[in-house]
Amino acid sequence: MRTSFKFLILILSTSFLFVSCGNKGNNSNKSALNSSKAEKVYVAPGEHDSHYAFISGGYSGNLTVYGLPSGRMFKEIPVFSQFPTTGYGYSEETKPMLNTSFGQIPWDDSHHPDISQTNGVLDGRWIFINGNNTPRIARISLTTFETEEIIEVPNSAGNHSSSFITENTEYVVAGTRFSVPVPQVDVPINEYKGNFKGALSFIKVDKETGRMGIKFQILMPGFNYDLSHPGRDKSHGWFFFTTYNTEEASTLLEVNASQNDKDFIAAINWKKIEEYVDNGGGTKMPTNYAHNVYDEHTHTATSTMVKEVLTVNPADIPGAIYFLPTPKSPHGCDVDPTGEYIIGNGKLSADLTIHSFSKMLEAIENKKFDGEAYGIPILNYEDVLAGSVKSGGLGPLHTEFDGLGNAYTTFFISSEVVKWKIGTWEVIDRKPTYYSVGHLTIPGGNSRKPFGKYMFAMNKITKDRYLPTGPELEHSAQLYDISGDKMELLLDFPTHGEPHYAAAIPADIIKNNSKKFYRLDENKHPYAITSPADAKVVREGKDVHIYMSMIRSHFTPDNIEGVKVGDKVYFHITNHEQDFDVPHGFAMIGANNSELLIMPGQTKTLTWYPKKVGVWPFYCTDFCSALHQEMQGYIRVSPKNSDIKLSWSLDGE
Amino acid sequence: MRLQNVLMIMLITLFVSCGGGEKKDTSNNKKPAKKAAVKKTVTKTVATKKVKEEGIVDLNNKGIGPIKSVELTETIDKAMADKGAKVFKSKCSACHRTNRKFIGPNPTGILKRRSPEWVMNMILNPDEMVKNDPIAKELLMKFNGSPMANQNLSKEEARQVLEFFRTL
Question: Which DSSP state fits A453?
Fold first, then answer.
């Protein structure tokens, strides 16, 4: 016992020594640290990161905001999932955001964010992201960092090849991963072949407001449409989609959808289809989908059901769609910044396949076809091939570009990132990732103007990289410096959910437009009160509307009486702060939903069903001032048949 | 540093120095009928308790912030004061009453205690004021560490509020 105690003392004192020595070393060795990896990712307290990264939250249904190079998470933006932290999807104003033709769906699987562009350059106005499971596309404002719009996509299933946008944000696409009967019908599943369709939806984006509307849907053959990318620069006006399961199997796809040596990249001339549609082409089909819009001034969302969609049959627009044969079950579909090269990453192939846009046009011009599929011409593989990268890796997934003539491709099976040169197809560098990398992101790396400098890989498996936290770890991202010839791994950082893809952008493009608070005099919420003098409680039958205001550190009113069991109580609460970063929370005992977190100048509504007689407290959840704990109030709940009059007060007033 | 942190420190100081001794008795929650009566007396005692000596009065202190000098006209500009009343109602009345001490001080007669510049700087730059201005620091403690919220008034609005204060 004594010996072990002594031993412990010895160990402790030694470790103190180490700690203090280490510190000294750090201080006296500053010049040596200048080249260290730690310094490259270190953002000193109070200093800001140089880039924003928006990482999809996968099965969290949300979008997370990170700083680069620090890898610090700043915010989770609720998109497709209810979010108790702020009350998104629980408050009366935001419930309509999650409305669909199936009713309210409080979750989705968010995959691929993409930032709006002007002339092929990221403009930082909005970010779009797809809900994969119940097909939806969301638009998030990058001034408020709030989800402003969600549009459901009919005739789709597994909305995977989205949400990628054209270079002036003309369209955001939503391509179906799973083909389904269109319109839906009760048929034997083994009658898939030839009967199922793959809908590729082109959603028009309003230049000024960002408002979305499905302009047309192309009803493609029943393949699986995996990923997509718009043309750039010279190929602007085209969109490219990878396909798999060109076998049109409906069972055990792992085997049956991997039979063909080559699948296709579908090249779609959307300008031609747009022209066709603008001239009255296409067929209107009855359907039913939700279009949900959040208004920044009323702080309220509305959901509208749309009853019709314009569909386009590829056979009706000859010359608009072609298939480029691509080995083998390609996942990523990426276009280089010049728009000339279309890179197909065959998951089951070791090599990358690069198609040439100009060779494609030439082959089309000369009508050099190698057959057709459902009336869509198939081009000759050799005729459109620009080259291939013989990588020696396994399972290429996704490619982005640094703007200096280099491309970076992830390899899922061999867990690495490979850097190669566009044009010579020569491998320049390869670095391992830990482990099983999916997508990677370079700021602006899928646009006409990549900003380079950093690349981060998003990995599916994290084991051994962090302290263990039970059977599951958060997935990891790994940040690389790509400013030199060789990639340099700088940092591991955890991500939330299953991050599928990300978009990143220099902070300067966004931060100055970021909203600090909502102006009270612009608050058009129908239940807002812009002065505490307007606070009131109104009974309409069994509905009780409480018009309440909050500011550090009290609610007005904070005593409410005359509420009865069986009532439905609406708390309409306006935050009267007009200062950055001073939200207040509102939590009600026994509320069957969540709290509210109300931004400065904003109004939100919580519904509460008083079920028990008594006096029940509510309070502010956000530590707002020294007297934060005193920010509370009471509601007296009387029996159903009570005749106590509705009354309210603050400090006897 | 965030205001909240400053306030945390002040809260701690408060607890240390006062030990919560000023808090009133709250053990009276038995019969609803009696409760109301008890409550009223408690409110009254609190009200009388809180009538205290005025703190620092310094008409030369212009405060810290964007306002360096303010010229007041001989007579009150009524139109401006009316605008100020509206701004006050919407942005300030949550914490200030013109007839009594409330969450924050009663602005009635404020120009007898503070310079017009100080008043506007307190409105426009409260974060720095409560950190560095002696009067504002004193007030923060006197008002239980309740921060003066920065309501992001424009200079023009702050001037209107000041004119409104002259009518009180």
Answer: S
Reported ipTM: 0.77
Q: Does A556 touch chain B (CB under 8 A)?
A: yes
Question: What residue has token string 């998951």?
Answer: A347
A29 forms bridges with which residues in the sheet? none
Beta carbons within 8 Å of A399's beta carbon, 6+ residues apart: A332, A334, A343, A345, A352, A407, A408, A409, A410
Strand ranges (DSSP E) for A177-211?
A: 197-205
B145/A contact by beta carbon, under 8 A = yes
Q: Which residues of A327-360 are buried (b: 16+ CB within 10 A; e: fewer)?
A: bbbbbbbbbbbebbbbbbbbbbbbbbbbbbbebb
- Residue A582, chain B, CB below 8 Å: the answer is yes
Query: Which neighbouring-strand residues pair with A184?
Result: none
Chain A's closest residue to B2, CA to CA, is: A581
- Per residue in A524-561, pLDDT (tens digit) is 999 999 999 999 999 999 999 999 999 998 999 999 99
Say if A540 is an interface residue toward chain B (CB within 8 Å). Answer: no
Residue B154: count other Cβ atoms within 10 Å of its Cβ. Answer: 10
Distance in angstroms (rounded) separating the CA atoms of residues A249 and A251: 6
CB A459 within 8 A of CB A489: no
Q: Are B168 and A648 in contact (CB under 8 A)?
A: no
Which of B35, B41, B90, B92 best probes binding to A when mutated, by most A CB atoms within 10 angstroms?
B90
Q: What is the DSSP letter of B73?
A: P
Is a pLDDT exceeding 90 seen at residue A505?
yes
Distance from the Cα of A317 to chain B's closest Cα (Å) equals 57
Which pair of tokens denotes residue A330? Answer: 């390609």
Asked if residue A165 lies in contact with residue A205, where contact means CB atoms within 8 angstroms, the answer is yes
In this prediction, residue A486 carries a pLDDT of 96
Q: Give A619-631 as a 3 state SS string.
A: ECCCCCCCCHHHC
**How many other C-beta atoms lie within 10 A of the C-beta of residue A619?**
17
Tokens 């969540």 sit at which residue? Answer: A594
CA distances from A440 to A407, A437, A450, A499, A503 (A): 11, 8, 13, 10, 9
Determine how many CB atoms are found less than 10 A away from the CB of residue B5.
9
The pLDDT tens digits of the residues spanning A570-618 come to 999 999 999 999 999 999 999 999 999 999 999 999 999 999 999 999 9
Chain B residues touching A521 at Cβ < 8 A: 90
Q: Is B37 on the interface with A (CB under 8 A)?
A: no
Cβ within 8 Å, pair B90-A627: no
Residue of A540, A530, A465, A453 whose CA lies nearest to A495: A465
Closest CA to A129 of A150, A144, A143, A99: A150
Chain A positions touching B43 (Cβ under 8 A) are 651-652
In A301-371, alpha helices (H): 357-365
Specify the pLDDT at position A19. 41
Q: A651 vs B43: CB contact, 8 Å cut-off?
A: yes
| A631 at B interface, C-beta within 8 A | no
Q: Are B88 and B119 spatial neighbours (Cβ–Cβ below 8 Å)?
A: no
CA angle B131–B137–B138, rounded 5-degree value = 170
Do the Cβ atoms of A629 and A554 come closer than 8 Å? Answer: no
Asked if B141 is an interface residue toward chain A (Cβ–Cβ < 8 A), one would say no
A19 contact partners, CB below 8 Å, separation of at least 6: none
Q: Residue B153's closest chain A neighbor by CA?
A: A578
The confidence score (pLDDT) of residue B9 equals 54
